[in-house]
Amino acid sequence: MPQTLYKKLWESHLLRTESDGTGLIYVDRHLLHEVSTPQSFITLEKAGHTVRRPDSTLAVSDHAVPTHDRHLPIADLQARDQVARLEQNTATFGIPYIELQDFRQGIVHVIGPELGFTLPGTTLACSDSHTSTHGAFGALAFGVGASECAVILATQCLRQHQSKCMRVKLEGRMHPLVAPKDLALALIAAIRTDGASGYAIEYTGSTVDSMTMEGRMTLCNMSIEAGARVGMVAPDETTFAYLQGRPMAPQGEMWDQAVAYWRTLKSDPDAVFDREVQIDATRLAPHVTWGTSPQDAAPIDSTIPDPESFADPAQRKRVSQALAYMGLTPGSRLDEITIDKVFIGSCTNGRIEDLRAAASITQGKSVARGVTALVVPGSTQVKHQAEAEGLDRIFLNAGYQWREAGCSLCVAINDDRLEHGERCASTSNRNFEGRQGAGSRTHLLSPAMAAAAAITGHLVDVRTLAD
What we know:
Layout: H1 5-13, E1 14-17, E2 23-26, E3 29-32, H2 38-47, E4 57-60, H3 77-93, E5 97-98, H4 108-115, E6 123-126, E7 140-143, H5 146-155, E8 157-160, E9 164-171, H6 180-191, E10 199-204, H7 206-209, H8 213-221, E11 230-232, H9 237-243, H10 252-262, E12 275-280, E13 287-289, E14 297-299, H11 313-326, E15 341-344, H12 346-349, H13 352-362, E16 372-375, H14 380-388, H15 391-398, E17 401-402, E18 423-426, E19 441-444, H16 447-456, H17 462-466
Parallel strand pairs: 3-4, 3-6, 4-5, 6-7, 9-10, 9-12, 10-11, 15-16, 15-18, 16-17, 18-19
Antiparallel strand pairs: 1-2, 2-8, 13-14
Helix pairs in contact: 2-5, 6-8, 13-15, 13-16
């Protein structure tokens, strides 16, 4: 029967089907970071297990690490302990570990692709929900919990429920200042955060075909915000060009063999999807969130909704509570919301293309008075490349802070966080209550939109600023 890309990858890694209907899946690649793995290693030690495939595993510290003063000991004792534990555990079990001072260090979902550890046709797991990022390469990539992480370390296998398949078709050429982040927010607003629950999303269409790998990674990264554990794009010439020459990618004759196989990784023309969603990208405006969920997103030229406009009583209550938390009034314009901080970074938008987009808006301008703005590259390699291109000088001259690589203000379990009541224009992926610090108020948007907010001191349509 005709098959979707997801089903092809599922079946090629299926070892057996269990009596309860779950599948025992072989996991090709496994990524670890410092925050979610301590319990996984404790489980291994108590059971007396070794790591089955250390060579298929890669570890790095990214979530809790500071993004400044890297030459000093980590000040936060809990963060210092988490990093030290990962270093110790990986040494004990023989797992490759990228140290904090290593030029390969960075956010786990940024370094996997840039090292060539992420490859088409593989299954890839990590104890982080944004593992869907790696699906941009045509991989079946998904997040797992600490106990599942321990199972993979010990067996290189995992029991999983097979997902249904959703195709999101994106057609047309976007405005140059409308970004993949805007597409992701528009999709989540349209189908809601549970719209893709139980599905694996495959992104297709002319818009996706013309996207860079950075753009595709942004789309797949936020699949989890739409409810899907898996988001993917079929590999093509753009994928192969990105991967060729990467340190951990196949080389020589093996590269040719790999590409020949990777070309077969696409949904059959008459494959049936369980759900289809289509978006006209030519009509898309820059989006920004106004509430406390990624689904609370709207075009920047619109107004904040009235809770009474929602028919569902539960939705009315949720929106009312969200607006109270965010300190916003129904009917007020999104482009009049003033901000205190700007954060450009994260596994969603911390790649070189994202920094270039923000720098193009920033060049020759200054951060507005009263606004604190920081740029945190997604990896040390991205940082070095940005510095080689002079992007760091553009940001520094404008009044930004230029930081070391890490998750930083996305998750606020390090020393970058908002104070109570502070409002941030953020290129990260979640705007939950307290996500960037207790009482923090977060507006999600693209790197270009964040740069525009930094310059003006309020949310603004970057297209008008560029004009």
